[in-house]
Amino acid sequence: MTNRRRALTPEALEMMDTIARTGSFAAAARELGKVPSALTYSVRQLEEALDVLLFDRRSRQAQLTTAGDELLREGRRLLVQMDAVANRVQRVATGWEATLSIAVDSIIAAPAIFDLMDAFFALKVAPRTPAGSPPASPAAIASPASLAEADDPSAHAPPTRLKLRSEVMSGTWEALINGQVDLAIGVMLPDTPFDVVECAPLGVLDMVFAVAPHHPLAREDEPLSSAAVARHRVVAIADTALRMAPQTFGVAPGQDVLTVPSLVAKLEAIIRGLGCGRMPEPLVRLHADAGRLVVKPLAEAPRRIELHYAWRRSAGHGRALAWWLQQLERPATRRALLEQHAGLIL
Q: Has this prediction a pTM greater than 0.85?
């Protein structure tokens, strides 16, 4: 048992994850900065210590055995837990997270997110909290009174590193549930609630159907029927979920589809006349006023989506997450996150 515990090091688990993710020993060796023979030797040592075969040597690719797949799944869970423990220790010591990871759905206005990051990095915080001081509540941590005066020579920007990632639909939830991020902005409530997160409403977004002025549907009688729309290519954004069931909206059975990676890409495709589709009304508004897009009423019921922000439950919030949650409570912030991409011009 002792040898097995010694073999299951974080380095060994990360090695397994890298091999499985890259698909080959050679690619994993390059990423880890090792020669393939050294990586192969490390895998054999791990197999001998556990007395199992982790990879099928008959396959030219790095094909996991059933035992290897189980080790990879549990190993990833252990690595996430190790990171969580390290982050909790850091929060206890300083009150600030080492890293705050935020998943932002593609539907959210990027300029508003960057305004929030600008405000976060402009904060002036007092130096380290004295050892032994009791932790502050989330409200107290985020309040201006807890921050240093701007002219305090010992004040500095928050020590927390922000890690921003763009996701789409179920992919935004998946990043939060899997522990890859601490905060998710722009999610729709799932059918079954997740007991590891808390949610709060962000706002309601009207989705409108738009085409380019030179698109055939621009000359069709209104309101457009579902059959008329189905005869033309629709532009859809790819759900970034890898394990959760991906979502698709507004695509009729058998309809031609152009799949793009983001809302900005969808806007570009529709302006070029490569397809049609629904988009947030604030994003469409400026382009419709400028004549780059035509909004067409549909015979079917208008679509409105309720968006939320969500964060992982924990014993206490670090200062960075508390600050972001305080900003998201403000109506002006929530409105900007839904509407500020009206200023986006391609």
A: no
